């Protein structure tokens, strides 16, 4: 109940902030799935999280959990902390459990926001989670959030699922996903 209320309020704020266009929601399959996306602005997880067919679970930097009200709110929305300064085994195990339990797990393939607006190199940890989970990956492109003016066009494009089978080269997996997101970007522009 709390989740649905918060999602409604956040979704309303997103729609007031942006002229939003969402495409490809039908590409998100039932069961455990990974939504892998680019990251340019603090609004990005809100755009995606309020426009998925089921609750989205996402890693968020540990510092966001210092404020108790913010921590409670983002935890209700599906966020959980990750320590970006070291290999955070607890967060990785939590990610794999979320996927195994048939939920939507989401991550930013660059690890943090791109200051230039261009995609940074993807983190190999993305490949690790994909390989260990065996889940399909939905490449997702977020656009328009870097413009600080209100009522600007912004959107989310959910691409078609990518299946990696027995692939274990984490860097190759991460680069394949990054290229798929770049392809979505080229279709939008």
Structure commentary:
With 189 residues, the chain is α/β, with parallel strands linked by helices. The chain has one domain (2-188): Glycerol-3-phosphate (1)-acyltransferase (3-Layer(aba) Sandwich), CATH 3.40.1130.10. The chain is built from 6 helices and 7 strands; from the N terminus they run αββαβαβαβαββα. A 7-stranded mixed β-sheet has the order 1-7-6-2-5-3-4. Strand 3 (56-61), helix 3 and strand 4 (79-82) form a beta-alpha-beta unit. The longest helix is centred in the C-terminal third of the chain and has 19 residues, at 170-188. The radius of gyration is 15 Å and the shape is globular. The model has no long low-confidence stretch (mean pLDDT 91).
| Structural class label | alpha/beta
Distance between the termini: 38 Å
Order of helices and strands: HEEHEHEHEHEEH
Number of helices: 6
Strand content: 15-25%
Shape: globular
Helical content, roughly?
25-40%
* CATH homologous superfamily caption: Glycerol-3-phosphate (1)-acyltransferase
CATH architecture: 3-Layer(aba) Sandwich
- Low-pLDDT sequence parts: none
Radius of gyration: 15 Å
Sheet with the most strands: spatial strand order: 1-7-6-2-5-3-4
CATH first level: which class?
A: Alpha Beta
Query: What is the mean predicted local confidence, pLDDT?
Result: 91
Major sheet, described briefly? 7 strands, mixed
How many β strands by DSSP?
A: 7
- Kindly identify the CATH topology: Glycerol-3-phosphate (1)-acyltransferase
Q: Write down the oligomeric state.
A: single chain
Number of domains: 1
Domain Phospholipid/glycerol acyltransferase: 33-145
Pfam families: Acyltransferase
Protein name: 1-acyl-sn-glycerol-3-phosphate acyltransferase
GO molecular function: 1-acylglycerol-3-phosphate O-acyltransferase activity
């Amino acid at each position: 109940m709390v989740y649905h209320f918060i999602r409604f309020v956040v979704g309303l704020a997103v729609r007031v902030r942006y002229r939003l266009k969402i495409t490809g929601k039908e590409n998100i399959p039932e069961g455990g799935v990974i939504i892998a996306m680019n990251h340019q602005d603090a609004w990005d997880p809100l755009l995606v999280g309020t426009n998925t067919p089921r609750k989205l679970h996402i890693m968020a930097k540990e510092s966001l959990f210092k404020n108790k009200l913010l921590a409670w709110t983002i935890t209700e929305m599906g966020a959980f902390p990750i320590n970006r300064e070291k290999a955070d085994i607890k967060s990785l195990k939590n990610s794999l459990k979320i996927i195994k339990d048939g939920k939507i797990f989401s991550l930013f393939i660059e690890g943090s926001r791109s200051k230039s607006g261009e995609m940074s190199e993807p983190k190999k940890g993305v490949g690790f989670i994909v390989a260990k989970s065996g889940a399909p990956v939905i490449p997702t492109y977020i656009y328009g959030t870097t413009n600080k003016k209100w009522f600007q066009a912004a959107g989310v494009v959910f691409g078609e699922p990518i299946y990696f089978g027995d692939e274990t080269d984490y860097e190759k997996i991460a680069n394949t996903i990054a290229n798929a997101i770049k392809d979505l970007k080229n279709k939008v522009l």
